[in-house]
Design brief:
mainly alpha; 66% helix; 0% strand
Length: 196
């Protein structure tokens, strides 16, 4: 997939986050401070504006995404998503086409960055519950439709577990029964990124 097609994909991903900002903030108001969707929408609105620029390679494009998210999205989400795209970009210097192999490798690098930054693991009720299984499935060369389905299952899985990280950890047992907002936004982005 070339840079122009990837920009189109990112635009679709941004629109999906903006359309779901109230849903994501509603999820966050149950176990957090209620601003996840609005913060994410702010970051992705900035990204949409920057898609008009020219980028010499995929690294430059994804580095810009990273910068927009870190500078525009409040709370933990900005640094975490920003780190994901920063690490994702690291594998793409000089490349103007994204192969499946590039995607697999970059996604894994992105997830490793999120885990390092947020110190979260599977079972902590965070975006890692979605991102890490998706990284594994991509690297096992699973069909993209199956990867999307897995992302949805893992998002739903966060509903039944207690939060051990982030703002939601403060509410302890009360976090059970609510989908993690970061897992939900991760699923939305993965669905739009990987659908045909």
């Amino acid at each position: 997939m070339d840079i122009e097609n990837i920009k189109n994909k990112i635009n679709i991903m941004a629109d999906a986050i903006i359309e779901n900002k109230e849903y994501l903030s509603d999820l966050d108001s149950e176990i957090g401070d209620g601003d996840h969707g609005f913060n994410m929408a702010k970051g992705f609105s900035a990204i949409k504006k920057d898609l008009d620029s020219d980028y010499k390679d995929l690294k430059a494009l994804f580095m810009k995404l990273s910068t927009d998210l870190i500078s525009k999205v409040g709370g933990a989400s900005g640094p975490l998503y920003g780190t994901f795209f920063l690490r994702f970009a690291g594998n793409l210097a000089g490349k103007t086409e994204l192969t499946r192999e590039d995607l697999n490798k970059s996604f894994k690098l992105g997830v490793d960055g999120v885990k390092m930054r947020g110190k979260a693991n599977i079972g902590d009720k965070t975006m890692v519950d979605v991102l890490e299984p998706v990284a594994e499935a991509l690297n096992e060369d699973k069909d993209l439709k199956d990867v999307i389905k897995l992302a949805e299952e893992k998002k739903d899985y966060t509903k039944g577990i207690k939060a051990n990280k982030g703002r939601a950890a403060y509410v302890g047992e009360r976090s059970i029964g609510h989908i993690d907002p970061g897992a939900a936004s991760s699923y939305i982005l993965i669905e739009k990124a990987l659908e045909e």
